[in-house]
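Chains adopt folds. We examine one example:
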Amino acid sequence: MRILKLKLHWQILIALVAGLLFGLYLTDYVNYVRWLGEIFLRALRMIIVPLVFVSIINGVGQVGSAGNLGRLGLKTIIYYIATSTIAILTGLFFVNLIKPGVGADIGFNQHVEGLDLETKSFGRTLIEIIPENIFQAFSQSQILSVIFFALLFGFFMTQIRDSYQKTLNNFFEALFSVIMKITMLIIRITPLGVFGIIAGNISDILLEHAGNVRVLLGLGERLGLYMLTVFVSLCFHAFITLPLIQRFIGGINPYKHFKAVSTPLLTAFSTASAMATLPLTMEAVEKNDGVSNKVSSFTLPLGATVNMDGTALYELVVAMFIAQAYGLDLTFGQQAIAVVTALLASIGAAAIPMAGLFMITIILSALGLPLEGIGMIVAVDRILDMFRTATNVWSDTTGAVVIAKTEGESLLVKD
C-alpha cells in the first residue's frame, strides 16, 4: 500500500510508465485494462456539466455581491477579463507558431473517425449559445449553453431579495461541496484511468503501425514541443505582458514588485495552489508593495478564484495541441470559440489540485474533440501546473498594485 502514500503526480507518472510498458509488451491483454480508462473518461464526462454549472454560479454570485463596492469592483473585473484574454491570445499565437501537435507519425489519426467537430460559422455558434431548452443542453453536454445559463442565473441571483439570495447561496455552496467530493474521488482514480488510456492508446498505435516504435518517439518529441509551447507562452505573459502593465498602467517598477512578492510566487510554484498561497500573497502585497487592506482584501481573494491567466492560457494550448495531434485544422471561428470557452472556463475553475484537467474537458467538449487526448498530456500536467499557478499569482499581485495605483494610493514599489 506504500504507493497510495505517494503524491498524486508521482502516482500518475508511475501509471504512465506502467501503461506504456503494458501497451508495448502485453498487447494481447490490453482489453483487460482498457476499461479503466473508459471508466475514468465517463466519470469526467459525468462531472463536467454539474461542476461547470455550480462553479460558475458561485463565482458570478461572488462577483455580483462584490459589485456593491462600485468602482473598485468594476476595475477589478475589467482587469481580470483583459489579462486572461491577453494570456489566451498569447497561447493561441505560440501554439499556431510552433504547432507542437502537427506530425503524421504521432499515430492519433485512427481516432478521428466519427469525430463530430463543429462546422457551424462563428456567428451561428454564438446564436446557439442561447439554449432553446436548458435541460436538453444539460443532457447533451452543450457546454457553451450551460456556461451562458450559469452566468445568467448567477447574475440575477444577486438581484433578488436578500432572504432568497441567502437561501440560494447556501444551497449552491452545499451543492458545490458535494460535487467537489465527487470531483476529488475522480481525481484519486486518475492514475488508474491514465494507466488504462495509455495502455490502450499505445497498443492501438503499435497495431496500426505494425509494432513500429518510431511513432512513440515521434509522440515523445511532440509532447516535448507541447511543453515548450506552454512554457514559452507563460514566460512571455509573465515577463513581458504583465511587467508592461505594471510599468505603464500601474507606474511601478516590475523588478521591485517581483522582489516584493517573491515569497508567495515561490510558494505558489512549489504548492501549485493559488488559494493555499493567498495569505502570503496578501501579506506581501500589503507590507512590501504598500497596497491598502481595502484593495488587497477584495482583489486578491477574488483573483485566486476567478483570475487564472496561466490556467486559461494552458487550457487553450492543450485544446489546440490535441486538435493538431488528431490531424484537425481548426478554422478561425473554431479557434475563437476555444478562446471564449477558455476564458469562461478559467473563471469557473475551482481552486483545487488538477483543476485545469477538468476545465480542459470543457473546451474539448465545446469543440467536439475526444477526451482520450488528455491521457497524453496528464503525465506532464504537474510540472506545467507549477508554472501556470505562479503565473496566476503573479497576475493577481499585478492587479492589486495596478488597481491600488488607480485608486490614488502611494505604493512602495513605484517606478
User: Anything to note?
Assistant: The CA atoms of residues 212 and 281 lie 50 Å apart. Confidence is low (pLDDT under 50) at residues 104-119. The chain has one domain: 6-406.
